[in-house]
Amino acid sequence: MKNLSVDHLLGIKFLNLDDLELIFETADNFKEVINRPIKKVPSLRDITIANLFFENSTRTKLSFELAEKRLSADVLNFSSSQSSVKKGESLIDTVNNILSMKVDMVVIRHPNPGAPQLLSKKVNATIINAGDGAHEHPTQALLDSYSMRQQIGDLRNKNILIVGDIIHSRVALSNIFALQLQGANVKVCGPNTLIPKYLKDFGVKVETDFDKALEWCDVANMLRLQNERMSDSFFPSVREYKKHYGLTMERLQKISKDIVVMHPGPINRGVEITSEVADSNNSIILDQVENGVAIRMAVIYLLAKKNFDR
To answer: What is the pTM of this model?
Structure first.
């Protein structure tokens, strides 16, 4: 069986197309497992995984923990709010202390971009990036692509729109890398103040007219406003933002075709997307959640298989 080309999952930008295909193929097998009456496999019975979350997270943390338990790994959960990090201990010291308890893999979410890369060079464990600052969130992009493929097939030449707060979003950047690897056309849409200038260097088109962008796309991936990362005001008001960039049923019905609607969560219902749209037949938001467990099982299994010769 094939192996991943990487020893850690630090970001989509370090993967190639063969890696993506291998992850999706493996996720297909695990999706079948998690829909069986007995949802566990003994694949990682001797592996210990530490989940280190230095930022608040509910869905990603639960999804990783469930994926690890479905693979029969031993799981260690760490939250920085109750840790010595609060007392000034460095990240590397914290992780090395945890590794001295014979931990094999570390899943890390950290507010500073580059923290997973730093760890991969300094500690002796397999590192999985569960989100680093506004940099990357690779497993979210993988589950997004996987979910799209289930709906519309091969993504080559498909039109994928990412809408909203692009500048503060690690999901947007990882999605752009993953979609371009698969040959999709990517466009972003939102107020100019929320779109980073460097996207043009990646060949990503920018559209500020939301209705025009919806008419173009096959899939609209709606991002929430990351208010916790905003130090300034990036638009006049939330009301104004909703008017120009909120996805409503009325907007969806105006366009000449059916499109797939996605959201990485958590949803600000009534801001970037109305409840009516989030719960409609166009939406695959709950499929994304289910696929998240299968994708994370695939990533953990493939990295363990490569690094621990399983």
So the answer is: 0.93
For the residues of 34-84, what is the DSSP string, one character each?
HTSSS----TTTT-EEEEEESS--SHHHHHHHHHHHHTT-EEEEEEGGGSG
Domains, the chain, in order of start with CATH, read 12-134+289-307 (3.40.50.1370), 138-284 (3.40.50.1370)
Residues with Cβ < 8 Å from 105, sequence gap 6 or more? 47, 48, 49, 50, 73, 125, 126, 127, 128, 300, 303, 304
Report yes or no: 126 and 4 within 8 Å, Cβ to Cβ.
no
The one-letter amino acid at 308: F
Cβ 9 vs Cβ 177: under 8 Å: no
Cα–Cα distance, 218 to 40 (Å, whole number) = 35
Identify the residue whose tokens are 């980073």: 196
Q: Please state, in angstroms and rounded to a whole number, the distance separating the CA atoms of residues 294 and 66.
A: 10
210-255 residue pLDDT tens: 999 999 999 999 998 864 444 445 555 788 889 999 999 999 999 9
